[in-house]
């Protein structure tokens, strides 16, 4: 596992996803997911993923892929999912997940797509590399409980119809959000205060 790398996908669509929690009954209860049980959740998450992602596409999974299945079942689910898959390790991702044949496994990844620099981490950041130069930040972990900003967004399945999010749609959602990241907002406020003195 590496700490931080850059990725420029060679072709195809780039998808971002987090918090699938395959096999995790607690995710159904704690986040009010509309599934009867783990079997239904797993089946519908796989179907939703494969309805969007093509075999040549790139998928960056921002952690909490699976929790509760056997290593064999986790491998079956992984194999059933289309795309070239990269993992950003989440707090629920153990060896049975990190040892799957991902294209890469790391703690943080910067994706260069659609002319943008996108810093991917399982956890939301208040400040991230390049934020003052327009870099975007995507994360998981919060299951849609934190509001996004003009430069940051939760890409967990709970906020995206239980499916991966196309990178262009994520960028558009951020662009439509007026709230600036805290670090930028505070810098602007300090600058405005200095101008009034």
Shape: globular
Give me the secondary-structure category.
alpha/beta
Average pLDDT: 92
Question: Termini distance?
Answer: 50 Å
The CATH class label is Alpha Beta
The CATH H-level homologous superfamily: Metallo-dependent phosphatases
User: How would you sum up the major sheet?
Assistant: 9 strands, mixed
Question: What key phrases describe this protein's structure?
Answer:
single chain; 197 residues; alpha/beta; Purple Acid Phosphatase, chain A, domain 2; nine-stranded mixed sheet; 9 strands; 22% strand
Question: What is the compact description of this entry?
Answer:
The chain has 197 residues and is α/β, with parallel strands linked by helices. The chain has six helices and nine strands; from the N terminus they run E-E-H-H-E-H-E-H-E-E-E-E-E-H-H.
Write a structural description:
The chain has six helices and nine strands; from the N terminus they run ββααβαβαβββββαα. The chain has 197 residues and is α/β, with parallel strands linked by helices. The chain has a single domain (11-196), classed as Purple Acid Phosphatase, chain A, domain 2 (4-Layer Sandwich). The longest helix has 15 residues, at 38-52. It starts with a strand and ends with a helix.
């Amino acid at each position: 596992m590496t700490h931080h790398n850059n990725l420029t996908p060679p072709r195809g669509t780039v998808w971002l996803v987090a918090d699938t929690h395959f096999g995790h009954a607690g995710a159904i209860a704690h986040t009010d997911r509309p599934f009867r049980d783990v079997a239904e959740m797993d089946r519908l998450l796989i179907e939703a993923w494969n309805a969007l992602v093509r075999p040549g596409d790139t998928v960056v999974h921002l952690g909490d892929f699976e929790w509760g299945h056997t290593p064999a079942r986790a491998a079956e689910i992984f194999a059933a999912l289309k795309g070239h898959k990269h993992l950003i390790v989440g707090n629920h991702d153990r060896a049975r997940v990190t040892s799957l044949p991902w294209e890469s496994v790391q703690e943080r990844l910067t994706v260069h797509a659609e002319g943008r620099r996108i810093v991917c981490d399982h956890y939301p950041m208040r400040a991230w590399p390049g934020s003052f130069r327009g870099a975007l930040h995507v994360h998981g972990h919060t299951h849609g409980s934190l509001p996004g900003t003009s430069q940051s967004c939760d890409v967990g399945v709970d906020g995206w119809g239980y499916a991966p999010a196309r990178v262009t749609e994520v960028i558009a959602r951020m662009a439509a959000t007026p709230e600036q990241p805290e670090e930028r907002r505070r810098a602007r406020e300090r600058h405005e205060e200095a101008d009034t003195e």
